[in-house]
Specification:
Length: 279
């Protein structure tokens, strides 16, 4: 017969619908329940946390993306069960700026020209808060944005804060807000993100102000703070340097070179020489 303390644990555990159903479905005897009472109780307590969260808050369980469950195999066993709410977690860590909240998603095809990118991302993901980011360049439609978005979502699932920015519209917004004083907040957001991704750099109308007062300081901060940064572009890094130099003041080439040196310090350059998937 159970003592009073064990009986309280049992009664508390059986208040949980999942635990009660498990006991009923497996026709557990009183002896088996007594032997497994602490496992039953611990699972019921963990499920209380999950039901209170449902993907809306920070996961308070030790094993992120899973919760404990029960199986019967010559006795009661506790196993890890995938969290049914885990896909709701990543939006809290992935912020899309000047990019639609609903974007094309799907499986990442890894073959041919994409193999090198995949290998680089695999190496990066071994230590995503310490390794260099990637400067991914190639022609139109090869999937650069798609690949970076997939990577951003994977990082977000690991509870890494990612800010993903469509760079041409970012530049447009910065220029529109020059006189309002509203730029500092967005610049600081880009500086402070665990991982920053600038998509389609080089697609903007070039501006010495954005280059020297916005992009340069963001990259400078991230370089000294050892914060990983990614970029996608139709230009190689050397071609981007020429693009950044094409403004109207005489110091362009020097200032463009300074920005490019920071890019080289922060990122590994990889060319995606693939087919146009938009056709």
């Amino acid at each position: 017969m159970m003592n009073k303390a064990l009986l309280e644990f049992k009664n508390d555990a059986l208040q949980d619908e999942y635990v009660a159903k498990f006991v009923s479905d497996n026709k557990l005897s009183d002896e088996e329940i007594e032997e497994a009472v602490f496992d039953l109780y611990n699972v019921s307590e963990a499920l209380k946390v999950c039901k209170a969260c449902k993907g809306k808050g920070e996961c308070r369980l030790e094993a992120f993306d899973t919760h404990p469950g029960l199986v019967y195999a010559n006795g009661v066993k506790v196993v890890d069960v995938p969290c049914e709410y885990k896909d709701l977690i990543s939006p809290r860590y992935l912020e899309l700026l000047y990019f639609p909240g609903e974007y094309v998603d799907g499986d990442l095809k890894v073959a041919g020209a994409r193999s090198e990118v995949y290998k680089a991302l695999k190496a990066y993901n071994k230590n995503p808060l310490k390794n260099q980011g990637i400067y991914l360049h190639g022609t139109f439609g090869t999937g650069k944005t798609f690949i970076l978005l997939k990577e951003a979502k994977e990082l977000a699932k690991k509870r890494i804060n990612v800010v993903f920015v469509y760079y041409p519209d970012f530049c447009r917004a910065i220029k529109m807000n020059i006189t309002t004083g509203n730029n500092e907040a967005i610049i600081n957001k880009c500086k402070q993100a665990d991982v920053l991704m600038f998509d389609d750099i080089g697609g903007e109308g070039n501006s010495s102000f954005v280059r020297d007062e916005v992009l340069g300081p963001i990259l400078q901060y991230r370089m000294f703070a050892y914060k990983p940064t990614f970029m996608s572009s139709n230009y190689s890094i050397s071609e981007l340097e020429q693009h950044l130099a094409e403004a109207k003041d005489s110091s362009n080439l020097v200032n463009a070179s300074r920005v490019v040196e920071r890019i080289k310090m922060l990122m590994t350059e990889i060319e995606l020489d693939d087919v146009n998937y938009r056709k």
